[in-house]
Amino acid sequence: MLKTFYIILVLCSIVLNAQTTTTIQGSIKDKDYTAFSIDSAFVVGKDLNNLSEVLFSTYTDQNGSFQASIVSTGVEDVKSIPESFLFSQNYPNPFNPSTKFDVSVSKPGNYTLEIFDVKGSKIISQDYNLNSGGYTFDVSGLGAAGVKFYRLTGEDFSETKKMIQLDGSIQNPELTISQGNSHTNSLSKVNNLDMRIFASKEGYITDSVDVSYVYGSVNTQDFFLSQIPTLDTIHVFTDQTLSPTNTPADNASIIGKNGSSTLFSGLTNSNGEFSTDIIVQYVTNPNNINERKYTPNTITINTSRANTLDDAETFNIDGTDLVWINDIEQTLINKNGTATGNVTDNLLIPINNASVKLYNNDNNSLLGQSSTNSTGNYTLNYTYNGYENDLSDLFTPIDSMKFDFSAANHNPKMIVKNFENPSVTNAVLDKNAYNLNATIKLYNTKGDVITDLDSVKITWPDGSAEMIANNNGNITLNKSLFTLNSDTTATITHNHPEQYLNMIIGTTNNSNKVEWLYQTESPFALNNAKIPLNKINNATTEAYFIPKFVNYGPDNNTQIDMTGSTVTGFLSRGPFGIVSGFRPSPAGYDTTDIVQKLYNETTNEPMPQNQIDRANNEIQKFLTTVNSWSHKKLLNYRFTQIDSSTDPFFLYLTNPSGRNADNLSISTFYNSGPLNIVNISNDGSLRIKYSTSKYNTGNTNNQIQEELFDSMLNTMIDDQQQFILANNTNYTDLAKNLMGISLIMKPGTNYWEQ
Fold this sequence. Notes:
It contains 6 helices and 49 strands. It is mainly β. The strands form 12 sheets. Strands 17, 18, 21, 22 and 25 form a 5-stranded mixed beta sheet that branches. It has a 5-stranded mixed beta sheet with strand order 37-34-42-39-40. Strand 27 (355-360) and strand 28 form a beta hairpin.
């Protein structure tokens, strides 16, 4: 820690006395009312070096003037010498590249100055013979930056101090000394009279001034005395309300200021009120006691609150209470409202999916919109501009609201209401007549026009029914009706279940893509289908009838009854709604992967080449035939051969999270086991998925899914019983129906082209 040393100088003086007269004069006035002179004010002068010594005293006259004379002695001193040593801190410090320090020597003699670096290595040493007096040392060239130490030794004196060098490089020290610093200059001759002059008067604050006058001169000293102020209490009251709602502005911030000084602050209560007392002071005009000056002289009251415009009012202080009744102008903010209601038709039937829009009727700006549910109810959340404390929602920029109701095949309705929140508004929409014009072409699934039905029955949404004549495979629909919503359907049925089963409804309006409109949704609805009326208007639609019987076998004379569970389940596809499961998907939707493992499942070794050749032959036979069908994409088969159980694609297919894990048919070879078996899993969907073909390598008839291929190609099956698994005879019917499905889907028409 650096220590501070103080120099005490003892001055030995030779005093020379000379008598002199000094005159002091001036005036005293009121500081606040400067035209008023203060009479009988007391003025006293005291020695500034000894305040107990009074040099003069007097009073002001009736004009506020005073005068006094002082007979005094001038003093001069002789040269002084230091009484003790002074070794100062270097300056500047830190330094770059040079620095100085002072020395006051009270005892003459030999002295040595040394400078060291932080490691204690001596940088420079210089001897001096100094007389009593003051000296200044100037140092530079001390080398690299860092901490340095400097020490002065001699004549019973030794002291070391630390200094810091900020920069440096070459060490080439230079040390110079000069005589005559501030500690050794002789004192100037004393030619002044130093006093403290006081001015006072009852009712005024005493004032004083320190002066130094030249001996023998005439000097003027005026005073302006401040009155001792009188204190006064002012009560401040504010009552804040919100405009335009006129509700109390509770929790509003109130701040009172005089210039930049804050006099009071606080928050209004629940009634919008705030009050406080403040102390003010004033002085009175001596010539007119009714005239006053207040401190503070004005108060500016500021009020602010969330979502309002700040306001302020300035009041002049006159000693009376301050009252401010103020309306704070609110700013508009976004507020939320809810409208509810119900929409029906003129028969009081709920309208589903009706559009409800709410507007500001003044400027037609949209506030919010919604739609009705199946029971015709709606809840509409909307946003509007309002005020924060708008509890009743009566004060808004909205005078009235406009509801616009609309629904398909109904006349729109507009309802205007006075603004209120919440708003419950019901509407009744008159239905429009829906003029239906459509042609339905009747085909069997082989693409043949159906002419052996004289008519079909159409049941309309309102429950009425009519028979439509079959005109060479065409039925014409022409009817005016009221539709209730966008998915209203009619039902088409026929009365010849001995010839045809269910129907598939579709359209060919898009030449690039066949669109299935409907398939029978239940396996038991074998002779009817639904027609989506909104999709067939002014269009040509096709209805495909499933033949009840199909033929197969080498001579195509073995008949299969298609009322089996496989056909009804395979063609209904209920979980897929009204979109047919037979429509192929370019993204692989509904793809069935047929995987052939070309290795022995028992030994994990590759199959002999002759068996691989047979597998390839079976695939090629199937693909060649299927590719000749116009509806070849109908069932979306994909064939893959793998030669390892770690094949990445096979691992993807068998992973439960894989897309096609539930549409997989696999054939495998074993060294031993049952006879060749094709297992088609009856998992409820009755499709050719989850099927496995198991073949014994020791059996001479090592088929590779040949049974599946033959059934779909309508070729000879070597052994129909190979479809039978264990003792489940249901698979016999399943096998036959699978062959039947392939037959009714195989003949192509333009309808199947994609």
